[in-house]
Structure formats: structure tokens, C-alpha cells
Amino acid sequence: MKNVPDRTDTTTVNSPDKICGPNCSEAGPSTRKSPKSSLLSGFLISAFSVFDTHNESKVIHKKNQETCSGNHHGWTATVKRVMNSGSMRRIQECVLGYKTNVSNSVSDIWLLGVCYKISLEDPSQEPVHISGYAAFSEDFSSRILMTYRKGFVSIGDSKYTSDVNWGCMLRSSQMLVAQALLVHRLGRPWRKPLQPPFDRDYIEILNMFVDSEDSIFSIHNLLKAGESYALAPGSWVGPYAMCRTWETLARSKIEKNEPEDKLFPMAVYIVSGDEDGERGGAPVLCIEDASRICSEFARNQADWSPLLLLVPLVLGLDKVNPRYLPLLAATFTFPQSLGILGGRPGASTYLVGVQDDKVFYLNPHEVQQTVNISKDNLEADTSSYHCNVIRQIPLESIDPSLAIGFYCRDKDDFDDFCSRASELAAESNGAPLFTITQARHSPKSSNTSKSHEADSFDAADGDDAEGSAQDDWQLL
């Protein structure tokens, strides 16, 4: 098997999906600017759905009634063409503040375990297709965005006061962990309020990621925790080393005699292959290991604790093997989903949702001035930590080196995750993303999924154009 080097960005990425124009920006307010904007959003995005639902319109002028009554379907098609035209799309992008080309598809959108119905075949049901995209946009813009920053205090003994061109993987991982903290402290249904004062928990979470040694999850402390994994200012890092760095940071908290410390309120479990991933192979989630890690985190005062699961994977050589694409898309449907650290080769992003064969992502490659969010300032300007520009890329184009994240609040949530993961593995035709086992040294077969004594990834057809599944797995 060949080694695949860790890859992150080498230059600031100017995404082809970026919205252009003087009134459009990548990082902006997290939600709609006003109720009028919300109404405009719902109208622009799904006006044609209204025409599809109602066979007769009472708002058409009398002078148009005779013409339209006999040609309703033609009028509907015309509206659809106008709404999907390039000029109308540009108007939507600049007026509403987010990219709306995804409205061309009426397929469901899955965003971090939440499904948004864009269209319904049965008009008698609730018309969620009218507000589905607006609700998705509000959810998307409520996720915390971490980007390149400049102007912070130098990192350690280095002269680096910015992470431009090298810190995108660190920023992507910060976004994933920030999402875990949002779910843990505020719940998945939480949305960023339109105006301050904000929730104290929300402000405290942002304070944890301020670019300073005083903030537990800052880029400064991540680099310090990842020194043994070759993390250093100015260097590039891959998903596996990034996951191990977060594990090290969590373990350092356990070793401190501060039981009242709630800054890192969850255990971290890296799902890897046999022998700690040194030999590659299919990652195995061991239930006994998860139980032990939770108990250690709780200092043996409880049998279980909230758990952050990170699954680093290498699913191909230059691109993801197509057999894994449906499985990756399915992970966004898990209620425990925290998304994926991934992106295009050489440019890490945070993948948060899927629709058809495309994934939505938050882009860390914008350079912003560092800001100091005090945990007591509920009126703070947090606009630079959110993005209302919705971007998507083909799922097949993402880098095969990635990491999937999941958050389990308690034992019941963990059991539900294991059940879903086992079902997904059973449907993978012998090539699951990872498997579930009760004990580390038990046979490879899971108590709920089908597999073989040998690594299930080796069970590929010999004449597969992509090569054997074993070839897809690299040393992590």
C-alpha cells in the first residue's frame, strides 16, 4: 500500500462558487436581515411551487384572466424558467445574501442530521416546500464559521501572526468541534438570534476559539497539543493528525485535577484500524473501548459521558472510490452527524450537508482580522463567525483523505448511532466506511452488521477498475 501525504491548502482559494458584487460577501450576518427578507426569500425561491399548487390564481388581473385560464401550465413553466434564469439567480444572491442555485433541485437536503423538504409530490400535505429552503438557509447560516485570521498574537516562539495559506485544516476542525459544542449546550434546533443579546452559551463557545493562548480551542493551543503529530506554525496537516490532536487536547483536560472544568465537556474517541491504525485497514469502533474512554473522562464517577467520535479515512488514491460516495452521503442523515473534514485536494473545508450528488460546505479560506469575543459580552459582533453564502461541490470531487465526526449525548444516543452505523455497513456490499464490534479482540463480525473474518475492505471484485478495496486504504 502506498502512503498518501497529508494535504491542505497551498494558496488562498478563490472558490468558483463565491458570490461576486459590491453587496455580497462570504462571511456575513447569520440569518435573515429582516422579516421582509424572509418573505422575499420564500417568494423568490419557491414562487413556482405556489403556481403548481393552486390551479387558479385570484391575484391575476382581469385583463390576464382569459389568457392565463387556458394556459396555466405554460405560465407555470414560464415562471420556472424565469426563477431559474441567470439574471434572477444573481438578483436572489445579492438581495438575499446567499447563493440559491441549489433551488434548481427539488430533492431533500440533509444538513447535519436534519432533513429539509424542498418539494412535495402530494399537494394536500403541509406546504413545507415553500419554506424548506429558507429554513435550510437559516440553519446553515447558524453554523459557526472559522476562517483564516490575521493580526493575532504570535504563536509560541514563532513569528506567525496569521494562519493564511496553511491553517485551513485547523479551522475546519474547529468548525466541527464548535458544532459539537453547540449541540451539547444549546441543542440541534438552536438558531442564531437575529439580534443581540445572544445566548450566553453561544458567546462562551465562540470565546473558546479566540486566537489566543487563553482560549482552550485556539489555533495556538491546537498547535501545541499537536506537536507530537508534526503540527507547527506554517505547516500543513492532514485529517488523521488533526483528529489525534483533538484527542490529545481532551486527554490533557482529564489529567488535570479540575473536576469542575466544563470547557471540554465530552470524551474523544478516534475510530481507527487495528494496532492504532498503524497497519491501516478498516476502522473498527469498539464498544468496550468507547465505554472505557467515557468512564476515564468522567473520572470513574459515571459509566458514560458525552462522546465525540472522529473517524479518519483514506478512501482512494487521487479521488474517492465511487463505492464509498453513497455511504458518505448517508452519514449526513445520522442525528449524530457533525459533518466531514474534507474538501478539494489541497484545500480543506467543512462539509455539512448533502443534496443529490453534491455537498454543502463552509469555507475557511477567507482572511479576516482577528477579533476578541469576551465570554461576558452578549452584545458582541459575531458576524465574522457565520456565513450566509451557501456553496456546494460535487461529492465525487472531494479529497479521499477525510474525517467524519459524530456526537453522542448519552448511552442511548450512542446505541442509536451504533445501530445506524451497523445498518449502513450491512448495506455497503462488503466495503463499509467502518465497522462496529463489541470487544477489541473479538472476531471481526459485528453484533449487528455482516462482515468477514478478513477486513471487509478486502472483499472487492478483482476486476474492479478502481482496484481492490485494500488498495484504497492507506496508512493513516
Written description of the protein model:
The protein is an alpha+beta fold. It has 13 helices and 13 strands. The strands form 3 sheets. Strands 1, 2, 4, 6, 7, 8, 9, 11 and 12 form a 9-stranded mixed β-sheet that branches. Strands 3-10 form a two-stranded parallel sheet. A two-stranded parallel ribbon has the order 5-13. Strand 1 and strand 2 form a beta hairpin. Helix 1 (35-53) runs antiparallel to helix 3 and helix 6 (168-186) packs antiparallel against helix 7. The protein is globular, with a radius of gyration of 23 Å. The termini are close together.
Distance between the termini: 11 Å
Helix content, binned percent: 25-40%
Low-confidence stretches: 1-73, 75-101, 124-130, 275-280, 442-476
> What structural category characterises the helix and strand content?
alpha+beta
SS element count, helices: 13
Major β-sheet, in short?
Answer: 9 strands, mixed
Molecular shape: globular
SSE run = HHHHEEHEHHHHEEHEHEEEEEEHEH
What would you report as the Rg, rounded to the nearest angstrom? 23 Å
Q: Roughly what fraction of the amino acids lie in strands?
A: 5-15%
Counted beta strands: 13
Q: What's the overall average pLDDT, rounded? A: 75
